[in-house]
Amino acid sequence: MNIATPAATVVLDDVVPACAPWSAVVRAGHRLDIIDLHGNQAVDCLLYAAADHTDRYSAQATVTAQRNIFLTTGSVLRTDRGTALMTVLADEVGNHDTIAGACSQESNTLRYGQHTRHQHACVENFLAEAAKWDMGKRDLVSNINWFMNVPVEADGTLGIVDGRSAPGKAVSLRAEIDTLVLVSNCPQINNPCNGFEPTPVRMVVTR
């Protein structure tokens, strides 16, 4: 993918290790490219207005406004107050999940058995990264799952199946206001959202 055009300047270029958290403030008008380096890697994501962390991404408001449960090119990521945080500028995958939520040690235990209780999960990543911004558990809400394939059956049943992504595929977002982006590079190994083997992703911010 062509990340930066001649008119663009790279202001941040980080590789997030497998299973790790990441965060940064993306300034209004800047672009964030989330790049799936090895393919089939879910990237859990939370968004907050940088100036007011109580104005945060709302899956409900976003889905209602766009009348679509999936995210793709043109989707505007909104808060409960209607604030537009970021817009999906380009999408090389097709759609992304905004309803399945983040894995946690508790949900792993319920879904996959007590032997998974010790496994690191996205909620733990979010809590560790949120603490850097003076936020805690009450500040976590339903998240976006970039690259995660969650089909919905006619009876409303959700599935978690192999992703549609591939090595080097990306989704590109433009910040509409200064936006704090929190990411958990999903450590899940009990379902196929990461191909059962979490891998690194790359986060590139340009202006």
CA distance, first residue to last residue: 17 Å
User: What is the count of β-strands?
Assistant: 13
Rg:
16 Å
Q: State which percent range the strand residues make up.
A: 25-35%
State the strand order across the main sheet: 1-13-3-11-8-7
Percentage of residues in helical conformation: 10-25%
Residue stretches low in confidence (pLDDT < 50, at least 5 long) are none
Count of individual helical segments: 3
The largest β sheet comes out as: 6 strands, antiparallel
Order of helices and strands: EEEEEHEEEEHHEEEE
Estimate the global geometry from the Cα principal axes: globular
Average pLDDT score: 93
Description:
This protein has helices spanning 59-66, 105-112, 122-131, and strands at residues 10-16, 21-26, 31-36, 43-49, 52-56, 70-71, 76-78, 84-91, 96-97, 144-146, 169-175, 179-185, 201-206. By secondary structure, it is mostly beta strands. It is globular and about 50 Å long. It contains three helices and 13 strands; from the N terminus they run βββββαββββααββββ.
